[in-house]
Amino acid sequence: MDKKLNLKLMLWRQNGAKDKGKFETYKVKDIDVSMSFLEMLDVLNETLTREGQEPVAFDHDCREGICGACGAVVNGKAHGKLKGTTLCQLHMRHFENNETIVIEPWRAKGFPVIKDLVVDRSSFDRIIAAGGYISAKTGSAPDANAIPVAKESVEQSMDAAACIGCGACVAACPNAAAMLFVGAKISHLVLLPQGKVESKTRTGNMVHQMDKEGFGNCSNEYECEAACPKSISVSNIALMNREFMFSKNPPKP
Amino acid sequence: MLKTIHHFQTSIGRKQVVATTGLMLILFIIGHLIGNLLIFGGPELYNGYAAFLVKLRPGLFVIEGALGVVFLIHIFFTYMLIHDNVRARPKNYKIVATKSERSFATQIMPFTGTIIFAFLFYHLWDFTFTPHHGAQSILRDGKDYGLYGLVYNAFSDPLHSTFYIIAMMCLGFHLSHGVESFFQTYGVTNTKHTATIRMISQTFGVLVGWSFSMIPVYILVKNLSGN
Asked: Residue B69 sits in which domain range?
């Protein structure tokens, strides 16, 4: 027999970027423990819609923990209390009956709130556009294994490439720094021969863009790694720091 | 030149300044600690060391001045970083919780730093810029023991000693995160070495904190037992 939960939700409601926003309290009843957190919010939204109220806006897409669209701070923890999962993979069995759950959006200057729990993460796109790519010659595919790559580099690069850009690192960081995200994006390129070509300009450009977006500075507290749904290591930040020492800085605008 | 200035206007550039100045201060602390521990060798050795330092002046003043500048740069750049960090999160969370093993030392870095800064002035007024001979240097046998006597008398006061021990604990906490941060900021850390570096950092912090504190503790105990 499945257990059912009755919960009290303290939810951040904010009608648009200019609205001041405030917490609203809602009650949800008969929540199945095998529901995901987002499904629980769906239940709330259906109730709100039936009652003629505005449903809660939240980002979501794949709902299987691989797209990076969802995310909220649940009881002070980005993506909730479980490690290595996104919010959609947090199931209600991890909550107690009659528990009060506080749900807030990512809070950072670089992530302005659009509505309720939805934040604007286009700052991440601009950081990528500043250098997180390889200018590849397109055309016929090269022969497999034409470029030898060390196994260890492949592993590290792929671990960094697991980043889904959800923004939990920024949300969890006490300083709202984006260094784990940028570090991962730099690592996954620079560790491979194809990415090394542009590494001198890439790191400088991306770090400058990161600073311009208003993210904070890493103080080596490693909250980001703990909150990352892909458990991306802070050693990527170290690698970025090392790369930055030898990078060409772009001219000041 | 312009490129260098731009470098230190970036987040990572500023962090590297804090790390570099931090390393210089750590080297000074190691030297200072070794000097201090000579007190266990008795008044002759300790006062001899103090006299040797005085003989190095005025050259030593240049080094001390430079160290002061390094200290101020360390504080100023940290201030700039904190200033940006506060602005990076205009609205705080209602509930702040941790998902990692974020250490106590890490969370109190700005506070331990501030205490060390305030302590420095008190310490200089207390032991450096004060007469090293006279009433406060005379021990129970009625002889003037110079700096040794001054330190001995100061630490015979439990309140005075407690204050120093608290300050040194702050220094220990500060270093236990600082050393690790230095390696991370200079990109030495990787998945293989993170645990080792963290262990070194914490051991160093504890060692420095305890070693400095050993002096007031030793004098207090010695004094209480009536020797």
From this structure: 2-224
